[in-house]
């Protein structure tokens, strides 16, 4: 089962920042937070991951709270092509928990 | 940019027939996965594969399913005797590292069982 909680849907205006929250209150010390997205019925696409420090790449930023119980994915300037389902996944370093498990995610709609 | 490719993109088959879905992972990756997504439902893990053997599998991956890497480049998923409920998108993924490596997914193979 997914170990994260995300809002089922959000919307955002094109050009504005999209901030997608994720709760992972039971995360353990060796577990990473990963974000993927799925555009329509395409294969999931990796976005970013982090352990405890904030991370940034060309797609997004990941802000992880100090207690690591929640995180926020930030798309700084959302475009219509960012409309997708966004999945927050907690993934560990031992046993089967290293297998990414997808929940329902957040359906983000970017509107003009 | 290297990518995972899957064939066929869409296959229609009769119930009870065998189906083989093919994947070409990214060339230097060593960890391979199959997931499936029934229409309107979550992306579900089926199986992971490393060093020519299954490393993890889910309850969905029963005796009707098998995987192999026949020639060092292709990674296949075989469904021995398809059922109506096997209709789904099947996604292959590969990764360069087991634990912290991000998964790169293919575009999927849509299987329709009639």
SSE layout and pairing:
The complex is a heterodimer of chains A (112) and B (114).
Chain A: E1 9-13, E2 18-23, E3 32-38, E4 45-50, E5 55-56, E6 61-64, E7 70-75, E8 84-91, E9 106-111
Parallel strand pairs in A: 1-9
Antiparallel strand pairs in A: 2-7, 3-4, 3-8, 5-6, 6-7, 8-9
Chain B: E1 5-7, E2 10-13, E3 19-24, E4 31-37, E5 43-50, E6 53-57, E7 65-68, E8 75-79, E9 88-95, E10 104-105, E11 109-113
Parallel strand pairs in B: 2-11
Antiparallel strand pairs in B: 1-3, 3-8, 4-5, 4-9, 5-6, 7-8, 9-10, 9-11
Low-confidence stretches of chain A: none
Helix percentage of chain A = under 10%
This entry's quaternary arrangement is heterodimer
Strand content of chain A: 35-45%
The greatest interface here is:
A-B, 23 and 23 residues
Number of strands of chain A: 9
Describe the protein's architecture and organization.
The complex is a heterodimer of chains A (112) and B (114). Chain A has no helices and 9 strands. Chain A is mainly beta. Chain A has a 5-stranded mixed β-sheet with strand order 1-9-8-3-4, with no helix packed on it. In chain A, strand 3 (32-38) and strand 4 form a beta hairpin. Chain B has 114 residues and is mainly beta. Helices cover 0% and strands 50% of the residues of chain B. Chain B has strands at residues 5-7, 10-13, 19-24, 31-37, 43-50, 53-57, 65-68, 75-79, 88-95, 104-105, 109-113. Chain B starts with a strand and ends with a strand. Chains A and B meet through strand 3 and strand 4 of A and strand 4, strand 5, strand 9 and strand 10 of B.
